[in-house]
Amino acid sequence: MTIATTEQTGTGIGALEALYEAYHRQALGLALRVLGNMGEAEEVVQEAFLAAWRAGHTYDPARGSARTWILTLVRNRAIDVVRARQRRPVQPLDERLDPPDSSDVPLQAALNVDAERVAEALYTLPPEQRTVIELAYSSGLSHTEIADRLKLPVGTVKGRIRLGLDRLRQALGVPR
User: Fold this and answer.
1) Nearest Cα to 168, choosing from 122, 114, 109, 120?
2) Distance CA 61, CA 19 (A)
3) Ranges of H-type helices in the chain
4) Are 138 and 131 contacting, i.e. CB atoms less than 8 angstroms apart?
5) Surface-to-core class of residue 130, CB atoms within 10 Å of its CB (0-12 exposed, 13-18 middle, 19+ buried)
6) What Cα–Cα distance (Å) separates residue 16 from each residue in 26, 27, 77, 103?
């Protein structure tokens, strides 16, 4: 099988689909063997095929088959995930420790007081800073999404968030 680049096919999608159909099962099996976790394996395979699509022009049939190329991409990405795990090991929860009780009244009261203080401090901000902070932290929008929604440059959104957060820290007496 050869990999047709975007220039050769016009889109390259047909080549990617053929590559996926031919090798995705083998790629998933390889990733699963390396990682031992189906979710991570599926993610690695997806990333590898995306990389193959983006870098299809770099494939050289003289260096090996398409199968070898895609499985090498999968293997390398799976190894990267294993290495990342080793750098940031996951600590299992100690089953002997009880999680905090969600009905802990003093804790809920303290959280409510903190939330009220933050809300009061938020309303002391200029409207442009308050708006971007609310969109970022309450609505969970990215800087780009906020910029699109407000028809502003991304740099302006970032600046307003930074200035607003600095003012909030001052208003709440939080050391920098």
Assistant:
1) 122
2) 14
3) 6-9, 13-35, 38-54, 66-87, 105-122, 127-133, 143-150, 154-172
4) no
5) middle
6) 15, 14, 18, 52
The listed CATH number (1.10.1740.10, 1.10.1900.20, 1.10.3720.10, 3.40.1080.10) that belongs to domain 6-87: 1.10.1740.10
pTM score over 0.90: no
Contact 44/84 with Cβ under 8 angstroms? Answer: no
pLDDT classification of 57: cutoffs 50, 70, 90? confident
Instruction: Summarize the confidence of residues 121-140 as an average pLDDT.
Output: 89
Q: What is the pLDDT of residues 81-112, one digit of tens each?
A: 888 877 776 667 676 766 655 666 666 666 66
Where in the chain is CATH 1.10.1740.10?
A: 6-87
Tell me what pLDDT residue 162 has.
Answer: 92
Strand, coil or helix: what is 7?
helix
How deeply is 68 buried, as exposed, middle or buried, from its count of CB atoms within 10 A (0-12, 13-18, 19+)?
exposed
Q: Does the structural domain 122-172 have CATH classification 1.10.10.10? A: yes
**How many Cα atoms within 13 Å fall on the side-chain side of residue 165?**
10
